[in-house]
Amino acid sequence: MPENTKKAPKVINKSGTLKMTDEVAEKKQARDIGGRPMERGGRRRRDRGRRDDAPKEFDEVTINIDRVSRTVAGGRRMRFKALVVIGNHKNKVGIGVAKGNDVTSAVQKATSKARKNLITFNMDKETICHEVETKVTGADVLMKPAAPGTGIIAGGVVRSIIGLTGVKNLISKSLGSTNKVNIAYAVIEGLKQQTPRAEWETTKAKGTAKKSAKKETK
How far apart are CA 109 and CA 95, in angstroms? Predict the structure, then answer.
């Protein structure tokens, strides 16, 4: 038999199994439980691309972190309470309040709650549709639309929430309690009540409705 037709010797490992040659290893394709071919390193590349390249839809801001205590049988139990707001810089915003044993867990819980409590509100270009005053327990917040170029004239909590929306011009005043959680809920309630201009019930519309009602009674 000529030398060029000789087969390469089989290499056996210590365990007694055949050692795979480099040529065979290159052609070998791994498969998952369902029998579908798997790309080598595909999951790692996919996760890396999702983490680095994927745009983040919502931005989050931690407004306040308080240390709270609770008296139990063994003494005082110290925990942390976080107030977090998230928004997409358009017309979606949400707030969340949660407690945790440490700051990190409290912020994570509050962020997940804020994602569940997202609201979509109406806007008039870069401001709110109309004036609104909302009251939640002791907090009373007044918000007014403003002309272009005015900016956001508001306090800390209101500015943090409105800054994550598409509203660029707003005048606001806090008239009641300084509790940050209640103020945040009051702002969200005010944004919920925004009605587009096309759906406003004007004085003229009220007059025509009264006239039609009178005609029906006659």
Answer: 11
Q: Whose structure tokens read 């409105």?
A: 162
Phi then psi dihedrals of residue 145, to 5 deg: -70, 155
**What pLDDT shows up at residue 53?**
42
Pairing of strands 170-174, 152-153: parallel
Chain position carrying tokens 């087969």: 7
Residues 180, 110 contacting (CB under 8 angstroms): no
Per CATH, is 59-119 categorized as 3.40.50.10190? no
Question: What is the structure's pLDDT at 209?
Answer: 61
Question: pLDDT over 90 for what percent of the chain?
Answer: 50
Which bin fits 151, alpha (ψ -120 to 50), beta or left (φ > 0)? Answer: left
Tell me the whole-structure pTM to 2 decimals.
0.67
Domain boundaries 123-196, CATH class: alpha beta
In this predicted structure, what is the pLDDT of residue 45? 47
What ranges do the domains of the chain cover? 59-119, 123-196
Phi-psi region of 42 (alpha: psi -120 to 50; beta: other; left: phi over 0): alpha
> What span, in angstroms and rounded, lies between the C-alpha atoms of 32 and 195?
53
Query: At 18, is the pLDDT very low, low, confident or very high (cuts 50, 70, 90)?
Result: low
Q: Contact at 8 Å (CB) between 91 and 185? A: no
